[in-house]
Amino acid sequence: PVERASLDLEPLQRFHKLENTEYYDQTIFGPESGRLEFEATVSTSVDQIAIAPGYLQKEWTENDRRYFHYRMDAPIENYFSFMSGRYEALKTMHRGVSIEIYYHKTHGMNVPRMQQAVADSIDYFSENFGPYQHKQARIIEFPGYRDFAQSFPNTIAFSERIGFITDLSDESAIDQVYYVTAHEMAHQWWGGQVDGANVQGSTVITETLAQYSALMLTCKKYGDKKLRSILRFELDRYLRGRTQELVEELPLMRVENQPYIHYRKGSIAVMSLIDLLGEEKMNRALADFLAEFRFSDNPYPTTIDLLAYINREADEKEQEFIASIFSEISLYDLKAKELTVAALDNDEYEVTFTVDARRFEANGSGMETEAGLSEMIDIGLFLDNPDELSGGEEASAESRLVYLQKHEITGGENVIKVIVPEKPLYAGIDPFIKLIDRDSADNIIKL
Questions:
Q1: Are residues 214 and 316 in the same domain?
Q2: Which of 19, 143, 308, 380 has the most CB atoms at less than 10 Å from its CB?
Q3: CB-based contacts of 5: which residues, under 8 Å, 6+ apart?
């Protein structure tokens, strides 16, 4: 962008505008996108297994080559992979789906964790969004030349570096294997069953909703402590990404395939919707959205459609907050300033917690303007520092929580007084990271 400007050239257009209906009949893959009947015969070395989307119809050996014939039973997106290797395989059945993990023979330590994540994904996503469309769910390892995983129809390519040889011995750390597996399985719904039109915001439908699905599943398995760790990681990456933007930061609903927005900011945004609407309403909105556009290709949906379904579950005040998340670049500056605790005669404690709170709106260049603030925000009191709690069940953030309630917070200094049955040693504003805070490190204060 800088070089183009120095040559007096117009900026490159990264994406078509959200309102440009001309591109609603294609995905980000362009005019070649769309669904097709898939069938393939793949040959490989005689000691390897070749894998493609679809179901194995026939396997044979000829002229010292091994052949595999695959056919998919329904049209799939024009987006698929071919893989081959000397694989071991773990195969199990779950709710009528064959879960298959193909891996190098010395890389089996995390395979059961992947299998469980696939099974849990099938359960939660099917029950809350709609049925899984395939009879198989396969994960295939590839060498660590790259460190990503990518979801194709009934097939997930998964680097050894971020799954198969990941060290999971630290139980307090984020379970990356479970989380990434859940994210890639979510793409069988978000991307596999519904895809976004080739305009701004399309990656919200595929990537942000996959993030939401993985976050919910991880929270179900590991609780709020792990969720807080993930959201803090995502928030830090979003704030860092803003500083490296070369063209223009855009609101979430107009994201132009900017990972720091659709992955990082998107994670915080969708979990703030859970806090606002609740899991039942949010999942109902997503299920209704998916039901309308499932396998639709003319038109493909946009974030305008997605927000319409979410707003159906919200009242007028809640819709204002939703608009600030998706249509604006909003940031908060929440600071814990002072904490005092006084013992009462009845073995209870009066807590006085002073916070400073401000909200800002930014433009695409990062210029921030202070905006009004009057919102219900979490105030939490803890027996231990929520940043340092271990991952063990007995020391989860919830079990060490003395108090967690929403209070109306306005711009400037706010003083919160509450009476609690135990003496807290830490207090925090938005302690579970439900808002885009410019510095989440100053949200917690010690007595």
A1: yes
A2: 380
A3: 11
Q: What is the pLDDT of residues 11-46, one digit of tens each?
A: 777 789 999 999 999 999 888 888 899 999 999 999
Identify the H or E element spanning 209.
helix 209-222
Residue 255, in any domain of the structure: yes
Where in 209-282 does DSSP place strands (E)?
none
Q: Which residue has the tokens 């806090």?
A: 275
**Number of H helices and number of E strands within the chain?**
11, 20
End-of-domain residue from the set 276, 294, 328: 328
Are 187 and 151 spatial neighbours (Cβ–Cβ below 8 Å)?
Answer: yes
Q: What is the DSSP string of 146-183?
A: S--EEEETTEEEEEGGGTTT-----TTS--HHHHHHHH
Q: What is the mean pLDDT of residues 64-89?
A: 94
Q: What is the rounded distance in angstroms from the CA atom of residue 308 to the CA atom of residue 303?
A: 8
> Domain count of the chain?
2
Tokens of 153: 């129809």
Residue 213: phi, psi to the nearest 5?
A: -60, -45
Neighbours of 89 (CB within 10 A): 12
Residue 395 pLDDT class (50, 70, 90 cuts): very low
pTM value is 0.92
- Under DSSP, the state recorded for 11 is P
- Tell me the mean pLDDT in the region 333-357: 95
What is the C-alpha radius of gyration for the chain, rounded to an integer number of angstroms?
Answer: 24
